[in-house]
Amino acid sequence: MHERLSFYVKRNSVIHDLNPLTKVILTLALILIAFSSPWYWTPHLLVLIAIIPLGFVGKVAPEFLKTAIRLILPAAGFLFLMQAFFQPIGQDVIFKFYFLDVTQESLMFAFRSSMRVFVMVSAFTFLLLTTHPSELMSDLTRRGLPGQFAYVIISTLQILPQMQAKAQTIISAQRSRGLDTESSFLKRMGSLSPLIGPLVFGSLAEVEERAIAIEARGFTSKKTKTSLHEIPDTHFDRLMRWTLSILVIISIALNLWLS
Question: What's the CA gap between 18 and 59, in Å, rounded?
Answer without folding.
Answer: 14
